[in-house]
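Notes from the 1:1 (GR / supervisor)

We went over the backlog. Supervisor wanted to see one worked example end to end before approving the batch request, so GR pasted a single chain during the call. The sequence is below; no edits were made to it. Supervisor asked that the structure be written out right there so they could see what the output format looks like.
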Amino acid sequence: MSSQIIIQPLHLSISIFFLLILSASSDPRATPAGNLTCSGDRATSPNFIPTFVQAMERLSSNLNSSNNNFAITNITDPSQSQSPFYALIQCHRDLSRTDCLVCYAVSRTAVPGCLPRTSGRIFLDGCFVRYDNNSFFQQAVDPATDTRNCTSSLANNNNKWDDFQGGFLEFNRSVGELVENVTNLAVNNSGFGVLGLNGVYGLAQCWESLTNNECRTCLDKAKAEAVGCLPSREGRSMNAGCYLRYSTHKFFNNDSQADGGSSGLSSPGAKVAVVLAAVAFLMISSFAGYAAYIRISKIREERKNMGMLSNSFNKSGLKYKYETLEKATNYFDLSNKLGQGGAGSVYKGTLPNGDVVAVKRLFFNTRQWVDEFFNEVNLISAIEHKNLVKLLACSIEGPESLLVYEYVPNKSLDHFLFDKDKVQVLTWRQRMAVILGTAEGLVYLHGGCHVRIIHRDIKSSNILLDKDFNPKIADFGLVRTFGADRSHLTTGIAGTLGYMAPEYIVRGQLTEKADVFSFGVVVLEIACGKRNNAFVEDTGSLLQSVWKLYKEGVVTEAIDPLLNGEFPEHEALEVMQIGLLCTQASAALRPSMAEVVEFLTTKAEDRVTPMPIPNQPPFLNARSLMNNQGISSSSTSGPLTKIGLSFTNTSRSSTTPSSEWPLRIDELSSS
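Structure output shown during the call:
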């Protein structure tokens, strides 16, 4: 076990190093070609997930030891009380061994998303991985799961016609001729072929477990599906036993086969590659001992921490067996799934004593997982407040780690504010109770417990509502603590765009005022019934809209229209003012959470200090964020460019629509 943990990161490092040295153009094509496909029944055997892990390890071992880019495994030993299990990996033959291993590594992180379903498969552009409880190695087609993916229609891209002088007819003819020839080439070449023809390129790959006739059957169907993509610039057919792709850009690596030339190691470039590979191997070997030592040290430290954690929970009676929690959730039945968070899925479960709990399921033991897990367990298990979700127990010795929380029946606040089909509209009294309870929970975190805690991810979806609609702050995976002698922390950025304070985004400077900003956004969302969406081009973000109405003296017009005017106007005005005070651009001007609670619980005439007048909040310019898919990797660009944050004096910012708001950014390093 220890040697596997050590060797796998080293092997990955070697693979990456070889990628860089052997060929700058090498590409594992580890991008999804289609959606993750899950089918079959939900597994009921308690051994199913351990069997899955065992099969993936065997598949990896078989792939490493094979002479080609294909491996299978099956586990059918009845003496081990295991369900039958079959798994297959097929990399396209044009990929190098290193690229194949990288593609498999990426696919292996995605396939567990199908658990506990008994069948799952994923197509990447360079490889295919499937597991099932039935043997499928010679299955050519499957009407239930065979699919295609068509992208980038030429009809809407006129500048591409220069490449195809004959227009649609010439392009369609070229694609038709290409897929016909490349599928014939694959059938006659042990299941693989690549070809370039008239500016169009194609690849066909059958799984090596198929016979020649089964390969032909699969590719005949794939050929018809691919032609059906026309006039799309790119098409993919993804069947049970094969893969076919055409594109207007050359995407495969095997130049010799596409050009009809010879292949092998006789070319000068190949000889140079072999020499460089040998040199690279010697260089990496010299560092392997040191890397192994560092890795072993880290593993020992993590095991020590996990052992201490396990002993702590054993003594306190807060540790549950994995099997108990698995049965409590009916083996993680999808009907019991309560939601999906950044750190894992949450399921409703019923313990043997009848107690109903929420079980958070974490799949992977990554470094980030360790950080978030210890945050939630070590810190949150030691604090208790009526407005914080209570951590009850954990399980750390099964195939995956589980956290057990108190069950909060009304799910999260965002369901009642933003869902199109609202089951229930929260009254003004209920909204005020949510605002006050959340504020009191934050006061406790910021100074009411044994250590100062900053949540870092306060948002509507992280505020749960109990049966009486009292709020409970949840999801403590990103919390940070610091001593009373510290004014702030400088840390990597983590949180959800739209709720993150500007000084935190720009400088990575973290104080309690970052939570105050997030709370202010939530206050405005609760009062207005709208999400703070910085990607709405016509109306701007919620902060902009509320600020504009506030400056015009009609801020109560922003109150949720579903309330039908049933709210005290003076109270609504104060709530909106509190939201704007909390979201001011300057952290120094924002009130503390203790002051917010005083504003909410004390009448205006009884306050020692009147409520201040708010200044303009910051406005988020989302265009650069959308253009760069969230983050620029340029080392020369400043933090404003990376996040797309701007401060304006207008009531409207230039933004781009998106359905992906809010976006969560975990551990983005600050400049």
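Supervisor's comment: The chain is about 40% helix and 20% strand.
Batch request approved.
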